[in-house]
Amino acid sequence: MAENRHALVLHFSGVAEPMLIELGEELSGELPDKLAAKLLAGEIETITAANDARIVVNFSHVVAAHVDIAPPLGQIYGSPSRR
Question: pTM value?
Fold first, then answer.
């Protein structure tokens, strides 16, 4: 069975599909407890993705955010090469 990948799921007003950023194991464990504070403060933060890419997120533009299991198919931001 394949290992579960975790993703930060960001929902934006007026955008039908959420943005998914694959997270490493450590960040996927600690980020969920911090998301409410980041949204309430409208913080701008750099998120380090699973492939070590640095992605800047402006939480003042995010309507909802959560960490979830990434879908098994398809490419998402920050995914390491699977080759």
Answer: 0.87
